[in-house]
Amino acid sequence: MTQTIAQKMYGYARVSSKDQHLDRQLAALEQFGVEPSLVYADKASGKDFNRPEYQKLVARLRKGDVLVVKSIDRLGRNYDEVIEEWRRITKDRGANVVVLDMPLLDTRERQDGITGVFIADLVLQLLSYVAQIERESIKQRQAEGIAAAQARGVRFGRPRKRRPASYSEARRSFQEGRITRKQAAACLKVSPSTFDRWIREDDDQVKESA
């Protein structure tokens, strides 16, 4: 006779930095019925899943176990990666996932015959789509903002060095062949490439005014 392994309910909590607190998440997990000894917590970014406590938790998950988090962003910030990790937990390991702040994200069997896995997959796909639209919208707004600022004459990047008072004399000496470009740049305390750029800009201004 084979002995069945009791199913366990684990909790996971995460904050992004060490000065943030886990109290609210831990309280929500305990209220849901997760034993404190089965709660894993990280103080790390949600950009990926390379977090020590999270990896320990996933390694312990067995078929039928339940992983509980307070909100979906406690798992991660990138919805595409969250979906991939979600499927690894629910399909590869056969465990369930419950998100307390979003009841539709509950993969446990439902009484109406529709599985929680099916509903959760649909919700996650929708969240991923909304996140992608928002990322594209942010990029578009940034591009429009940069274009509008450039139209107003705003320059981006590092400010260019201003020509020192001795620039005209150094340029004349260089053009007359009395000093080299490196010597001229050294006198002005700039790099030869900066000196070359100043010369080109002067030539361009002369051409435009001609």
First-to-last CA distance: 99 Å
Order of helices and strands: EHEHEHEHHHH
Mean pLDDT: 85
Total number of β-strand segments? 4
* Morphology: elongated
Strand content: 5-15%
Give the helix level as a range of percent. Answer: 40-55%
| Number of domain units | 2
Structural class determined from secondary elements: alpha/beta
How many separate helices?
A: 7
C-alpha Rg, in Å? 30 Å
CATH topology of the largest domain: Rossmann fold
CATH class of the largest domain: Alpha Beta
Spatial arrangement of strands, main beta sheet? 2-1-3-4
CATH superfamily of the largest domain: Resolvase, N-terminal catalytic domain
Give start-end ranges of low-pLDDT stretches.
none
The CATH architecture name of the largest domain reads: 3-Layer(aba) Sandwich
Largest sheet: 4 strands, parallel
Fold and architecture overview:
The protein folds into 2 domains: 9-128, Rossmann fold (3-Layer(aba) Sandwich), CATH 3.40.50; 167-209, no CATH class. The chain is 50% helix and 10% strand. It is built from 7 helices and 4 strands; from the N terminus they run βαβαβαβαααα. It has helices at 23-32, 52-60, 79-92, 116-151, 167-175, 181-188, 192-209, and strands at 9-15, 39-43, 66-69, 96-99. The chain has a 4-stranded parallel beta sheet, sandwiched between helices. Helix 5 runs antiparallel to helix 6 (181-188). The longest helix is centred in the middle third of the chain and has 36 residues, at 116-151. The N and C termini lie far apart (99 Å).
Topology:
Layout (H helix, E strand, L loop, with lengths): L8 E7 L7 H10 L6 E5 L8 H9 L5 E4 L9 H14 L3 E4 L16 H36 L15 H9 L5 H8 L3 H18 L1
